[in-house]
Every structure is written in structure tokens, then in C-alpha cells.
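G., the chain you wanted modeled:
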Amino acid sequence: MKKTPEEIQEEKELHPNWYNGTYMSPEHPLAFMGYIIAEPQSYMKPDTYRLCPRCKGHGGWILTYDAYGEGRPFRQLCSVCNGQGWQALKYLCTSEDGIHNFVFDEKLGNCYNQYKCTICDATKKIDSSD
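Predicted structure as C-alpha cells:
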């Protein structure tokens, strides 16, 4: 499955939306290889949750193949649904795809920061301390 740098560069030029820098994006056709679509949890009512628009219900995707040896890919959990594969409708952004675009807004304390969506002005506060 390992590709040469030339093959990867050619693929990036043919399909620019398949890669985000050096890593595969969720739009890559092989990004969900080995993933299954997550079943909704018992508390998730059909009228209050939907499949995550970024990971399409898988909870994450593969960034690079064979990163830790053959058959051992580098994976990423989805930041939109926190790896659940489902997104609560009450937390949707007003953008077309429902995905927030959070950027740093304000430092609230040591390792405690506020981020604001550039689309709908929603905020979230994150404590990154250990």
C-alpha cells in the first residue's frame, strides 16, 4: 500500500481535496478503510442527532497508511463529533455543512482559552492543562 512521494504528489495534483497538507482528508476514498459506521447510542433520539458531516458516521479516519510499520496506520478522531460518529442538532453551525470554524478568541487563564466560530459566533472554552 506504500506509495512513492512522486505517486502521492501526483494524486494531490489530481485530487486536491483528498489531502490536507501531507495528511489524507475525510474526502479521500480510502480514508475510512477499516472503519464501520457507528451505531447511535441509546440516548440519541433520531430527531435530535444526525450522522456527523465530517467523518460520515465513522468517528475518525486514516491520516497516513503504514505510519508505524506495514498495516499500522496513523488515525485521527473526528473533532466535530468527538469520535462518536453522530452530532447533536442543537450544536450545529449555521453554515451549509453544519461544521463550526473555531478560531482562537481570548485567553481566559493559564492553559484556559476561548475559541469562537467565525460563521455563527458560537464559543467554546478549552482547558488544555494536564
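The mean pLDDT is 84.

Shout if anything looks off.
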